[in-house]
Amino acid sequence: MFMTPDPNSTFTTKFSDPTAIALQPLPDHQETRLKAFRSLQAGAVGFAVLWVIAGLSASYSLLTGNLGEELTRAQTKVDLEAQFISQIVAKEINTAEHLASALSHEERILSSTGEMDSNLHLDKVPVSERSAHLTTIPEVNGLNNMLTSIAQDLDLMAVFVLNTEGTCIATSYLPNGVNTLGCLGQNYTSRHYFQRAKEYGRGMQFAVGRAVKQPSLFFAAACYADNHVSGVVVTRLDARHLTENLRNLATITWVSDSAGMVISSSRPVQLFNFMRWENQKPPETWVLNNVYAQETLTDLPLTRNKHLPAEWNIWQLENQNIVLANVPIENRQIRVWHALPVDELFHNQKRYWAFALTVILLGLMLILFGERMIDFHQRRVAGLAALSRLNKSLEEASRKLFTIATTDHLTQLATRGYFFQRLNEEINRALNEQSSLALLELDIDNFKNINDSFGHPAGDAVIQHMAAICRECVRSNDIIGRIGGEEFAIGLPNCTKSAALEIANTLRRRCANEGLTYGSKTIRFTCSIGVTLLNGRDNIQDLLGVVDKALYAAKKAGRNRVHFHE
């Protein structure tokens, strides 16, 4: 039996429109910067005019001043880009950390680290067999799938759960189509992030993964039960992903940790180089071997160019002149380094002395202006493409939310709330068009005995089998919903009494005659069906009350019955 719903409730109307999520435009912070940069270019053109007028007598001072301004612009540009990149890096890091914290309060994970963990008995399972043992547990597999979905949606390498002993009891599948549970059953007691999470509630560490040997940032958050740590949720962010999208640019970007080691680089060959900065001490050999998986320490070939004025702040990277900026990530022991090659500026300076100053300066301005226009155009195209992808992602997310809210996960039929909403719509349509409407309510007889005799998974299979019979016996425009544990309801628009009874009896006969093969056993069951017609009723409550009485009468008459009630 079911309770009469409120057709105007929030549940029945909230997800009626799958496009209800509003798409907000993203702010564009680049336009102002580009305008400022173009005004500086106009100033450079003015200097070129003055250069021609002043003549060779002022060439040295003007060319040197021009080079200094170009380097200043380059430094300003690299500073702004470093700030922007640091914000992106901080956002990705914060997202991974906040996700770990949020998941540590998620009810399903709390349950896994509490009751489920106590029932796993991992201490009785050999270490080499723990991964295989965990994959046989349905709750673990369900949690693995949930964590995989979260990792894929947020572009994380992995999300996993550790028990209080540091053993991984649930994890997401590895990315890139590798259907493998990399760290399941592994123990991470020695990891700094696990120890910090147990002691202080959260922890963070860079390390090369143990099961999947890739440089990663690990963020851990403790789960609590009764004020005691019951487990730790860990999110793993691929450190290479922080600079992956910058590899095709002329600039060079590094991300270093508190030990001065490069943990992400737009030039992969420089990964795990040591950044000697302000007397930074190199990591100890044990840390180098176990955290960074490196046998020897390699310095990043970065030195200050001592042959140029100190105020220009020119550095050399592998004999290439660069301007350099570094930005610390707030509240993190991580620093973003961003370098822009400026050899072209020095080459141009040399050409100024070999060619006519006016021609060289004009050509340089045209090259720089064209380069900046192309760069602006590419950024604009990339921004529009990103907005388009975001819109599509939001639309897809909205559709998924609508499906989740309206579809019963076990039977793929309409949920109770969505069925009542659709039934109410059909009632209003039938009243407006003065057409007929029939309603069937089905209940599997003695369903508790099935669960007791064959187990709850078998009971779920029976419910799914009943749903399949309902789909096969009704018309394409009929609506079917699962309104209770073993209860179903079917709305039949434009259906007479005789047609409704015929459909109900077909359902009853198929249910009684078609047994369900479950494993090596055959489960036979019957159903009772109540039938009624709209007959001028103008609200869903009256209709449901009548069909409920009809089902009750069918049950009372001995089950495996169809009963019609006016």
TrEMBL record:
Pfam families xrefs: GGDEF (PF00990)
Ranges for domain GGDEF: 435-566
Transmembrane segments: 42-63, 352-370
Highest taxon, organism lineage: Bacteria
Cross-referenced SMART domains: GGDEF
Record PROSITE patterns: GGDEF (PS50887)
Alphabetic keyword roster: Membrane, Transmembrane, Transmembrane helix
Keyword Protein biosynthesis: no
Cofactor(s) required for function per UniProt: Mg(2+)
EC identifiers of the protein: 2.7.7.65
InterPro entries with a match to the protein in the record: Diguanylate_Cyclase, GGDEF_dom, Nucleotide_cyclase, Rev_trsase/Diguanyl_cyclase
SUPFAM superfamilies: Nucleotide cyclase
Catalyzed reactions per annotation: 2 GTP = 3',3'-c-di-GMP + 2 diphosphate
MF term (GO), any: diguanylate cyclase activity
Protein name from the UniProt record: diguanylate cyclase
